[in-house]
Amino acid sequence: MAKTLFEKIWDAHVVKPESTADGDGAPAIIYIDLHLVHEVTSPQAFSELERRGLKVRCPERCLVTIDHSTPTLPPDANGERPYVTEQAHQQVETLYRNCEKYGLKLHGWDSPHRGIVHVMGPEMGATQPGMTIVCGDSHTATHGAFGALAFGIGTTEVGHVMATQCLLQRKPNTLGIRVDGELRPGVTAKDVILHIIGEIGVGGGTGSVIEYHGSTIRALDMEGRMTLCNMSIECGARAGMVAPDETTFEYLKGRPMAPQGEDWDRAVEAWKALPTDEGARFDREVVIDAADIQPSVTWGTNPGMVIDIRSAVPQRDDAAAREAFDYMQLRPGHPLAGEHVDVVFIGSCTNSRLSDLRAAASILRDRQIAEGTRVLIVPGSEATKQAAEAEGLHEVFLAAGAEWREAGCSMCIGMNGDIAQEGELVVSTSNRNFKGRQGRGARTVLASPLTAAASAVTGKVTDPREFLTEPMEGAA
Ligand SMILES: CC(C)[C@H](C(=O)O)[C@@H](O)C(=O)O
Ligand code: SF4
């Protein structure tokens, strides 16, 4: 029978199928290949292990790091890290202690790989096609870019996976999102996913595993595919995935945790069998034309409130829109482009990889950031930071007047103290624009790294095509 990518991975990992015998049916038990762990959602799970006197079943299947509560400013003269609160400090210290106690390798401050868990997993080659991957973190969907089934779990489940390497799950349904055609100049993977969420809405993927396919998706590099899959959760999907292909294999080859030698050849053979079979059906399908996608931004307080950057904020009069207009201090029918920008944040597991930093640098090179705008650029991992510095990107950023920080989640969520002030407008390459996400009263506009960099230069929400040297195809 023809199967989808999702079905192949699901079937290969079922330890015990869902029982439908008793009406409700017990969920399936599935095996987990890789468990990503960070300091925020692990403490209770470790406490539970301790309470029950259990061990971590497969320490070698855990990839552990610190990312959310970590300061992005360097240590002081005494080597002290500037933690925002003692609680943030303790969260990190607790993970150090738990890793020691349970025999887990922690990519802590001294690791050259440390970073946002969704950036470092792929970078290390830990994320591989065909795997089941979980993390106590909603943006685990990022790893689906490799043709893995990757999704976020709750803290209780983090404990289950630690103890058993298995998880109870109901089989989700599938949603195919096909995007065909060439992207217009200045349009990036971030614009594709913002456009998709704008089209299908924040509930458009609820309960589903999305497979992104079509010629536009095939043409994306791995970092673009990660950006795309990363935001799947923002339309309510359980996971997002892209079938593996040569682009995937080329990215993974030679990475520290990827298979080597003959194992590599065997792995690639197996991975080639993963893509959705001809004739396999998704439960639902959405089709998008790449030509319809423009640089996109959010205007409201959820990631589905999206407009083409040249459009006016919609003339909506429903309760959600009114609340959003009020919080965002925007008026329906007026353009968002041209609004004063207080802060630009380039970072997060959506857009903090080398290609994102290069995109930002392509606009910031030999330019200055507008007066009255603060720009924070935070690489996703220590390895990304090193790679960016090796090609001099940090010099471009510093010369433009931006701040160049240590790797971590930073202002995506502000748990480490990197926040915007009340009322400030932030153009942010992250994935959530909820009220207060980037600081109490801070107003978030989600955008691509190109749009963020263009807005940094002008100090206003700006169409990045104003900075492109190529002809502005489609621009009115
Ligand atoms: C802190 C963590 C549990 C949370 C998540 O689940 O995604 C965070 O990463 C986020 O992006 O909101
Ligand atoms: S970068 Fe943001 S979205 Fe990603 S894991 Fe960290 S807080 Fe969550």
UniProtKB/TrEMBL annotation:
[4Fe-4S] cluster binds at residues 349, 409, 412. Binds 1 [4Fe-4S] cluster per subunit. InterPro entries: 3-IsopropMal_deHydase_lsu, Acnase/IPM_dHydase_lsu_aba_1/3, Acoase/IPM_deHydtase_lsu_aba, Aconitase_4Fe-4S_BS, Aconitase_4Fe-4S_dom, IPM_dehydratase_rel_enz, IPMI_cat. GO terms for biological process: L-leucine biosynthetic process. Keywords: 4Fe-4S, Amino-acid biosynthesis, Branched-chain amino acid biosynthesis, Iron, Iron-sulfur, Leucine biosynthesis, Lyase, Metal-binding. Its EC number is 4.2.1.33. It catalyses: (2R,3S)-3-isopropylmalate = (2S)-2-isopropylmalate. It comes from the Bacteria. SUPFAM superfamilies: Aconitase iron-sulfur domain (SSF53732). Residues 7-459 form the Aconitase/3-isopropylmalate dehydratase large subunit alpha/beta/alpha domain. Pathway: Amino-acid biosynthesis; L-leucine biosynthesis; L-leucine from 3-methyl-2-oxobutanoate: step 2/4. GO terms for molecular function: 3-isopropylmalate dehydratase activity; 4 iron, 4 sulfur cluster binding; metal ion binding. Coiled coil: none annotated. Its cofactor is [4Fe-4S] cluster. It holds the Pfam family Aconitase. Belongs to the aconitase/IPM isomerase family. LeuC type 1 subfamily. Heterodimer of LeuC and LeuD. Catalyzes the isomerization between 2-isopropylmalate and 3-isopropylmalate, via the formation of 2-isopropylmaleate. This is 3-isopropylmalate dehydratase large subunit. It comes from Elongatibacter sediminis. The gene is leuC.
